[in-house]
Specification:
globular; five-stranded mixed sheet; four-stranded antiparallel sheet; 18% helix
């Protein structure tokens, strides 16, 4: 099962890489809502849940709780030689957030970081990319299995 999901993901990721501008309504990477900046550098964030919808890509809101594939694309080749840390925290009311995924510092020569996180509870999470040897940090807020205010307003 896991190999099937990974194979499906690789096919989907290839399609996304071939047409990144088309996938976001024709906007360039600078205006892509799934891209964040750390200084001069860009990182693209995508979320997949192939068990629910094999063709869907998300970046800020995921419709279902459960196993989730997170993909970070380090756009700039210079960053691919710098170690980076990936952490996903669940926003909870306790004093400290609960970490649901931690990848220790390492380099990613291809520029692509794939990780599977268990986002089992509906709520808000934050995916954090930290580049070692600097204070550059990028945060990607993520809403899991929560109704969007825009969707609720449309239904009223």
């Amino acid at each position: 099962m896991k190999h099937g999901v990974l194979s499906l993901f690789c096919v989907l990721w290839g399609a996304v890489c071939l047409s990144p501008v088309w996938a976001h309504g024709g906007v360039g990477i600078e205006k892509d809502p799934c891209v964040r900046r750390a200084g001069l550098y860009l990182v693209h964030f995508a979320v997949y849940q192939p068990q629910f919808d094999p063709a869907a890509e998300y970046c800020a809101a995921v419709p279902n709780a459960g196993n989730t594939i997170l993909v970070f694309d380090v756009v700039d080749p210079e960053l691919r030689t710098r170690p980076l840390t990936i952490q996903v925290d669940e926003a909870v009311s306790a004093p400290a957030p609960k970490t649901v995924l931690y990848l220790p510092p390492q380099t990613y020569p291809t520029g692509v970081v794939n990780a599977e996180a268990h986002l089992d509870l509906p709520g808000q999470y934050t995916a954090i990319v930290t580049f070692d040897e600097s204070v550059d940090t990028i945060q990607f807020p993520l809403r899991v299995a929560m109704w969007s205010p825009g969707v609720v307003a449309l239904g009223a």
